[in-house]
Amino acid sequence: MAAPTERTPGERIEMTVSRRDAGALTAALRDWLGERVGASEPPELSGARMPASGGLSSTSLLFEATWRAGPTSHRGAYVARMAPEEGAVPVFPRYDLPGQFRLIEQVSARCRVPVPRLRWNQPDGQPLGTAFFVMDQVDGRVPLDNPPYVFGGWLLEASAAERAELERASVNILADLHAIPDPCDAFGWLRPPPGTTALRWHIDQQYDYYRWALAEDGIEIPIIARSLDWLERHWPAEAGPDVLSWGDSRIGNIIYDGFTPVAVLDWEMAALGPREIDVAWFIFLHRFFQDIAEFFELPGLPDFLRRSQVERLYAEFSRYELRDMDFYLTYAALRHAIVMARVKRRMIHFGEDQVPDDIDDYVMHRASLDKLLAGTYAWD
């Protein structure tokens, strides 16, 4: 792993998420909301804020609203989810907010996976200048990414039994999601082009993403190129059945009440594909944080979300034996490498990081990825 630049273990990294003004967004939403709910006078919006712990992809605005419709008073706490502005150097090239709304709607209708209650969809971009939708806020707590939960916080401080409870419930979410019947019909807009398998299409899109995010601007990263070549040489003989893949399947995208999942978030990477894509991402994203902790000679959570345990639990809940996990775990590390290199590039753009001397250091977990390519990474 490349050494983080002049940072101490567990330090929060300040990163530009959005340059939108929460007050201006609130003012734009007020009249729009009044029309949507048939308010007899303009609603009162308060507490508008962009969460400090939010991700770097879509922008979220949290707010509370009160209004009257006829004789009845209404009050609610909501989240407006919108695409990032171009000036924020987006992590991804496209943000299909109407598609995300439709996907969450279908997930809610077709399985037990908990999602926030959807309220309103505004696909035409008015009045915020970009497509957005609004859903209920969900009370609870989330394992943090920045600083990572392996450095401190409620999950690290929990008992082994409590973490095991959370682990089982979280893996069960993957099994429930993957059990949605006829996913190619239910989520038809995610289908690959005719004559292309879902796995082939999924990986082809990673080639496109790498070109858009980095290579077309002259940032060609050797370890990413080697990883793409490795995938072609180690292609599974027979991919498993296609399911709805959450895409960003990790505990940092789940809200918990205690240790029970109450809402699954962030569906912008959703796709159709073998279930191993989600399970591998789920395993690798924890190991990414655990490797950072061990780099700093801290214990982290070495007995949590272990590969063998996650695979065993998934098989128990799904009655499906996972295939070719070495391939999918390496693919997860590659996908994360492209995302992290794009994130580093945007941090350099905003003056929050510097261009590395070794271009492979655009990938924070280059040492782990190297070992995966060589077949020497120690899982359990």
Q: List the uncertain runs.
A: none
Helix run count: 11
| Second CATH tier, the architecture of the largest domain | Alpha-Beta Complex
As laid out across the biggest beta sheet, the strand order is 1-2-3-5-4
The whole-number mean of residue pLDDT values reads 92
The count of β-strands is: 9
Helices and strands in order:
Layout: H1 22-37, E1 44-49, E2 59-69, E3 72-82, H2 97-110, E4 118-122, E5 132-136, H3 154-157, H4 160-178, H5 183-186, H6 198-213, H7 222-233, E6 242-245, E7 254-257, E8 260-264, E9 271-274, H8 276-295, H9 307-318, H10 325-349, H11 366-374
Antiparallel strand pairs: 1-2, 2-3, 3-5, 4-5, 6-9, 7-8
Helix pairs in contact: 4-9, 6-10, 7-10, 7-11, 8-10, 10-11
Explained architecture:
With 380 residues, the chain is of the alpha+beta class. The chain folds into two domains: 22-83 and 96-136, Phosphorylase Kinase, domain 1; 154-374, Alpha-Beta Complex (Aminoglycoside 3'-phosphotransferase, Chain: A, domain 2), CATH 3.90.1200. It contains eleven helices and nine strands. The strands form three sheets. Strands 1-2-3-5-4 form a five-stranded antiparallel β-sheet. A hairpin with a 2-residue loop joins strand 7 (254-257) and strand 8 (260-264). Helix 6 (198-213) packs parallel to helix 10 and helix 8 (276-295) packs across helix 10. The radius of gyration is 21 Å and the shape is globular.
Please sum up the structure shown.
The protein has helices at residues 22-37, 97-110, 154-157, 160-178, 183-186, 198-213, 222-233, 276-295, 307-318, 325-349, 366-374; strands at 44-49, 59-69, 72-82, 118-122, 132-136, 242-245, 254-257, 260-264, 271-274.
